[in-house]
Task: structure prediction
Amino acid sequence: MKLFNAFCLTAAGLAALPITATFAAEEKAVLEEIVVTAQKREQSVKDAPVAVTVLTGDELTKLGAESANDIAQYTPGLSIAPVQGIGNVPNISIRGVGLNDFRDFNESPSAVYVDEVYKGALAGLDFALYDLDRAEVLKGPQGTLFGRNATGGLVSYTTSKPTDVLEGYARVGAGSFGDMKAEGAVGGPISDMVSGRLSAVYHTNDGVRQNVNPDGKDGDQIDLAAARGQLDFKFSDDVSLLLSVEGGKNDNAGGNPYRYAPALLDGAGVPVVPTEIDEANRDDVVGTSDLNDINVSAGLKTDTDFMSTSARLDWDFGGFSLVSITNYQDFNKHQIQDCDSAPYDLCFTDYTTEVNQFSQELRLQGEIENLLWNAGLYYFDLSNQGAQMLFGPVAGLLLAPGTDSTTTTFDTTTTSMAAFGQLEYRVTDDVALIGGLRYSDDQTDMTQVFLLTVPDDALGFTGGVLYPEESQKKKNVSYTAKITWDVVDSTMVYAGVANSFKGGTFNSGFGPVDPAAYSVKPEELTSFETGFKSETSDRRNRFSGALFYYDYTDMQAFQFVGLNQLLFNADAEVTGAELEWTGLPTDALQISAGLSYLDTNVKDVADSAGVVKDREMVLAPKFSMNAMARYTWDLSGGSALAAQLDGNYSGSVYFDNINAPGTKQDAVALFNARVSWLSSSDWEVAAFVRNLTDEVPLNYAFDLSGQLGYVQQSYHAPRTYGVSLTKSF
Result:
């Protein structure tokens, strides 16, 4: 509560600072017009009847957003946590709707798109942000406008495109933990009908998890390189073809290790992590009380690589237009983890996955008098082959005497075909009706093999379980219906209902799965929402807000059972509200702030002691806030100096659906600061501090107390510093 009060006081102080100058007659600065494509057409964000938060590429740079995980700090209702560490599987939770499982064959219920192409590989959703035009976070069920259906919402990234004039930038930077980064882009005309753009980034550091084991390496390292090339062919004023290819890799030689925290059972049989025991244990097992230090074995790593190629055809036929988007992606990961979180070589895990994805979207859209219409077809094929292995002495203790390792291989294929469309009819100049439908035919096929390996066995294994191919099939019709009303020229309100689903899946783990728990049913979410968008007549203040209620059926929740990470279905409810404001109290000061309220209820969930009761959803803080203030001084010679402070507050959250005390993070507030100087010739020098007050909250935690007697914990990076130099042209 003290942190919450401090955050509120800071935000209030920033907002009140220059309020007397807000309506001075001589002020002429206005808020930049933000264009979004949340409804598959370009429109001002204040006119889009959907809860959407937009961050431009310039804002993301100034806020220091380097990975896709970072945007959650600036978006009300969005939480993103690195389930398996930096550059690995994230849990993307929009209004509490996420997936805290870390198996690579699953998909997130809160989808991610890059240039309107869906990314299916779960471990590929934490990626580098570079040369972006904007990021849009759409909240609530999606499916009547986008290729892939999503129950929670989606995050859509739009990259900077080729232009008709030569332009680009180059940026170099350095910071704490040996951090070094270089990125840049150049684009412009190649011929009368062809323009292109080439973008690249290289980022490396020594790892933010300091390993006190002299034989091991520091964890959560970054050694990342990525590049994107685009060619835009303008065959005529009506026909264009954009070809793009992007690829990259990250070689993390220290892996994504967790800290060890001992767990005991309380009187009710629920595991807890006593503070006094944990603090003493830091010296005995971890060897230090610094929460960012680890003490883990050597030989860990997390290596990933990806490639994506796309072809987008735009053809304007006059009364309507055609968009065709063809995409192929592959993603590979190899991860070795120390699952005892200690230097004793007792327990290791090894994960490999190879993902191949193909998608084709065809979309027609047009306008007839008062009617705007969109119609689309979508085909999606996702293939995921991989294995997860548990090896070391713990395998024999937990499975069978003499067992050296256990390996589970999996082969999954998801195929989806869908038809979707949406109509917007303007009843009057001020009132519009919106309706949309989606028909989906989804099928997921899974084959698994489970093996126990004993070193002295001539065959190499003593037993195995073959799970023959099984299928999850789902035909679904989802919908949206909405009404909008332009109350006055600068204020619009909307209300409606939306529905979407996520297909079923299967369970696996390091041991055989109970047949009764093998299949996980599809989930479905229905949202009831009302909201508003408003802008003051002087264009110096912009507001948006929403109230919503979710009826969530068969939510795919997560828990550890024995050696297996299992999803199970549970019904849930969510009630919430959001409010955002961006303003110019003076020409020199810009402030933005966001507030989110969530009340989540997952029904009838049993904990490890067998107690059945309602629980809170994962990564769903009751209150969260974000705020940013930037003040700019105009200097002589056309240069400028800017100072920026931003921060975010999150109420307490759980990292599992059981709400185990050892997986709870209390309320925390984090702040960042940046100072920059911009010359008249577009040189920028900037210095920043992240995590200004050096808070160290949990990033994530897994409760292994029932299996191994401890909780795995990963903590936020400590205070870091850095500088950068940018030249734009």
Summary: The chain has one domain: 2-728. The CA atoms of residues 39 and 58 lie 23 Å apart. The longest strand covers residues 463-488. The chain has five helices and 44 strands.
